[in-house]
Amino acid sequence: MAQQKAPRSATTKPIRILLAGYAPPNNGFSLSLKRIGERVQTRFGKDVDVKYLYNILDLGYKGEDLPWLIEDGVLTMAYQSSSYFTEQIPDLGIADLPFLFSDTSTARAAMDGRFGETLAQRMETTGNYRILGWFENGFRHISNRLRPIHVPADMKGMKIRVLPSEIHKRTFELLGAIAMRMDLTEAIAMIKAGTLDAQENPLANTVTYGVHKFHKFHTLSNHFYISRPIFLHRTSFESWPQDLQRAMQAAVNEAVAYQRKLAVEEHEQSRKAIEAEGCKINTLTPAEHDAFVAAVQPLLADARQIYGEAMFKMVPKP
């Protein structure tokens, strides 16, 4: 990949840093972005100019636009669910696999260890990115407007929105649903119109985007654990003074711990909000969970051939 010329914003003081995401200002991801920016601004004062674009959806962009906005240097830093990168970087598909992680602590250990480091290296090799850490989007659950879901048969014929990932699409096809890849903005419009039966997200996302006002049934399925890389325009980052690069890395490290703490709190708050709306929440029993895992075994078997055993061995055991 040819090296881009560093933009003036990265080499002339004040160094301009534009942090972006796709959530409201009071969301945990936005609060964590602000924490990063404030730490850097406090350390370097007038030598940097930090600005925030918390929700690019407000400007008419889609969530899927963040990768090219960073890669082209329009934005300095953003977070995005790793699933959005799988077409550009197919190896990231391993992180999309269903039931890859048994619990949150195992997932975090993987993303902070060799597994996450390897994924970051592959992102940096393929795109003009620098990966400084992983926010936690967390375990995802199913909501729908039709009926309770306990076993895969309950999803038969159900139209469900999935992230732009072929692995996500195939997962729900194996579960009997009609999987529809689409950006968040389109999905929200269809949910409000009643033309989309189901979606899958962490509870916090379901509440943030108001889906619980349209979907009565919620199943705590824990089917995917999704991380959000914190990625920068590499050319800008590498043009910064070394002390600014180190300070940004330290700020991201601190913000990751902060965001993960908020994610746990937001999960519980969101569950209460869903219940307050009069929705029904069910948790899969061990037998029901096993039925979901059994249904996706063809996908998991293929993944071992595609990604190799070495990557699977990087996933810590619970």
Notes on the protein architecture:
The structure is a single chain. The protein is α/β, with parallel strands linked by helices. 44% of the residues lie in helices and 19% in strands. The protein is built from 13 helices and eleven strands. A six-stranded mixed beta sheet has the order 7-6-8-5-9-11, with helices on both faces. A five-stranded mixed beta sheet has the order 2-1-3-10-4, with helices on both faces. Helix 2 packs antiparallel against helix 10. The model has no long low-confidence stretch (mean pLDDT 95).
Outline the secondary-structure elements.
Layout (H helix, E strand, L loop, with lengths): L7 H4 L3 E6 L7 H17 L3 E6 L12 H6 L5 E3 L24 H9 L1 H13 L2 E11 L1 E4 L14 E4 L3 H9 L3 E4 L2 H10 L4 E4 L1 H6 L8 E4 L4 E9 H6 L2 H35 L3 E4 L2 H10 L1 H11 L1 H5 L5
The radius of gyration over CA amounts to 20 Å
* Order of strands in the sheet with most strands: 7-6-8-5-9-11
Biggest sheet descriptor? 6 strands, mixed
Helix fraction bin: 40-55%
Give a quick set of tags describing it.
6-stranded mixed β-sheet, 318 residues, alpha/beta
Task: Give a short overview.
It contains 13 helices and eleven strands. The protein has helices spanning 8-11, 28-44, 66-71, 104-112, 114-126, 166-174, 184-193, 203-208, 234-239, 242-276, 286-295, 297-307, 309-313; strands spanning 15-20, 48-53, 77-79, 129-139, 141-144, 159-162, 178-181, 198-201, 217-220, 225-233, 280-283.
